[in-house]
Amino acid sequence: MKIFGHPWIASERFYTISSINDIKRTPANSILLLNPLPYSLELAQYCQQNSIPYALKVNSIKDAVFANLMKCKYIIAEKALAIELMPIAQNYLFDTQVLGKIEDENEIEIMAVAGVDGVIL
Question: Which of 13, 42, 47, 102 is 20 to 30 A from 7 (CA-CA)?
Fold first, then answer.
């Protein structure tokens, strides 16, 4: 399980992006954080075409499927949706990892039991 945003664990940093110019200003080896589809479709396609790792916020199973097909590195979803996505991701052998947003480190155990790939505090 991956854990992002916890003070004990060093992790990759996410940079919120809203334009291609923003992408050019991020540090090398950054993970770009995009808003949900369709608002960030152009940026997701740019990242995919240029092999730039990115994370995509998703609000539905459909968006998660599209994110995986668009070579997204991480899907970020609310806790309940992340748990619902895991069997689908495993069934279809997603290359994209599912991250659940949590408010408290005590929720890590719930997400681990559900088999979610990681969490963001």
Answer: 47
Give the 3-state DSSP-derived string for 33-83, with helices as H, strands as E and coil as C. Answer: EECCCCCCHHHHHHHHHCCCCEEEECCCHHHHHHHHHCCCCEEEEEHHHHH
Q: What are the strands of the beta sheet with 97-101, ordered from one edge?
A: 2-4, 118-120, 97-101, 74-78, 54-57, 31-34, 14-16
Dump pLDDT digits (tens) for 97-110.
999 999 999 999 99
Q: Around Cβ 40, how many Cβ atoms within 10 Å?
A: 20
- Among residues 89, 78, 83, the alpha carbon closest in space to that of 120 is found at 78
Residues in contact with 100: Cβ distance below 8 Å, sequence separation at least 6, in sequence order: 77, 78, 79, 81, 82, 83, 111, 116, 118, 119, 120
Cβ-defined contacts of 6-12 (< 8 Å, 24+): 6/105, 6/121
